[in-house]
Inverse folding.
């Protein structure tokens, strides 16, 4: 129980509210398979009240059209559903470092645009952002996808599966993403 709560605390500090929420929600709904932790968490009134407040803040504001744009259309609906986790609206602030990341990425791409908002001739630029957790990858992609056409987002999540609900890309899908990144989008 303590290890689970400590991990949730680390997620909150390092990756923000959304990663914390998704982890604890997975414990509560049983997808993490921690029966004892689930029993203890659901007994605690303050903790369940906190989770209810977070649910109201995070889940009603989800934008399903943003979820679709984050992944390649050639991925099956099942694959997209397996990779789907709650993503906040643009008004939700999960972690202050995400705001700084957005600022840096937008500044980078705007520097390489002409006055009409189009890419300068002869200049093709890309940005790769590495993250430790899938929830963070999805949150970053959702945040940056709101800045199209300046920023065109492509998620790349490795193969290893964690839990029952999330899956990474197959090797074939990873190759498709790598080829698309090399091409001029």
């Amino acid at each position: 129980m303590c290890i689970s709560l400590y991990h949730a605390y680390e997620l909150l500090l390092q990756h923000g509210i959304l990663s914390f929420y998704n982890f604890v929600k997975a414990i509560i709904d049983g997808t993490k398979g921690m029966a004892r932790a689930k029993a203890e968490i659901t007994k605690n009134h303050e903790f369940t009240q906190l989770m209810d407040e977070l649910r109201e803040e995070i889940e009603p504001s989800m934008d399903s059209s943003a979820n679709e744009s984050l992944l390649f259309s050639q991925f099956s609906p099942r694959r997209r559903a397996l990779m789907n986790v709650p993503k906040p609206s643009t008004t939700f602030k999960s972690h202050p470092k995400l705001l700084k990341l957005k600022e840096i990425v937008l500044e980078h791409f705007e520097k390489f645009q002409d006055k009409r908002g189009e890419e300068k001739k002869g200049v093709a630029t890309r940005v790769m952002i590495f993250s430790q957790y899938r929830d963070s990858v999805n949150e970053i992609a959702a945040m940056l996808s709101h800045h199209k056409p300046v920023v065109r987002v492509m998620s790349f999540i490795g193969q290893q599966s964690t839990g029952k609900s999330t899956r990474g890309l197959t090797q074939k899908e990873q190759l498709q993403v790598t080829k698309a990144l090399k091409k001029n989008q």
In short: Residues 1-60 form one domain. The radius of gyration is 18 Å.
